[in-house]
Amino acid sequence: MPTPGTQLSLRELQERYADPAVSVPAQILRKLQRDPRTGARKLYKTLAKRAEDQKHERVRLDAMLHFERVLWKAGIVHIAGVDEVGMGPLAGPVVAAAVIFPPDVEIDGIDDSKTLDEATRVRLDVEIRAKASAIGIGLVEVDEIDRLNIYHAGLRAMQMALADLSISPQHVLVDSRTIPGVAQPQNSFDKGDGINFSIASASIVAKVFRDRLMTGLDAQYPGYGFASHKGYATPEHQNAIRELGPCPIHRRSFDYIRELCGQYSDLYYEMKDRGSKIASRSEMPAWEKDIRSIGGRLSEMENKKLHLMKNRLWKRLGNAL
């Protein structure tokens, strides 16, 4: 490191701070800021931006770890963060993960798995597994999802993830719900996978695990595109179900599967098709009146879906004004 009063070697600084994960001391930034050389000014802008990003990440990570640090300070060592993935897809299992870290662990970049790209999730999954004291996985297959319903299947997966831990947790942190049958104290956080470190870590582990599972199932059930959409209701997946019908890993208790397979009434599909072609607010009243007039001839779910479609259309057309 150049001593104070000596001219900075730009080549040395570029090499020393080439790794974007390396922190840049404030002293170096101040020297670069005062250096009149063009190369120094350019390097200053790059490293100052990095330092600002690192500062923001430090604040964000401290906030995510706040609850764990309170518990660790109180002597509660084994804190399990729990989250599930796969509640919304039309196919495949629900997977939950439970993660326990030793006190004072930090991992830069931990966040809600839904906000991270695949490469980042995979990289963080490796680091989480390397630094965790224990990881548990819970998996509920499609037949049990259809038997329990998806909400209770998610709870069951989280119970299984906790039971799979090699260390018994002293406290449980969970995303948006309370896990029944758990003796330990637990705290539920609304959107916890985006604001709590342990829950976010569990969401990443569960997501990576389930994505790999769905990629493997793609080879077993070709034609549906499971490797790309992981079972979610993308247009590609919807079209595959219409053309091929559901396969053994589709959740047949999901009403949308029945709709895609043409098991609703002809009248419902006719009204839905009419609604999909509406382009202005002036067309809405007549269609809405017809929906009301045929309500007695449609099932409860058919009525519900058409009314949801109506509300979305009013909102979309209103925003288009």
Stated plainly, the CATH topology of the largest domain is called: Nucleotidyltransferase, domain 5
Give the overall form. globular
The unreliable regions are: 1-6
CATH class of the largest domain: Alpha Beta
The N- to C-terminal Cα distance equals 61 Å
Number of domains: 3
Radius of gyration: 26 Å
Which CATH-level-2 architecture of the largest domain? 2-Layer Sandwich
Account of the 3D structure:
By secondary structure, the chain is an alpha/beta fold. It has 3 domains: 10-63, no CATH class; 66-215, Nucleotidyltransferase, domain 5; 266-319. The chain has helices at residues 10-16, 26-34, 38-64, 66-73, 118-131, 142-148, 150-163, 197-220, 226-229, 235-244, 255-260, 266-276, 284-293, 300-319, and strands at 79-85, 94-100, 134-140, 171-175, 186-189. It has a 5-stranded mixed β-sheet with strand order 3-2-1-4-5. Helix 5 crosses helix 8, helix 6 (142-148) crosses helix 7 (150-163) and helix 12 packs parallel to helix 14. The longest helix is centred in the N-terminal third of the chain and has 27 residues, at 38-64. Mean pLDDT is 93; it is low at 1-6.
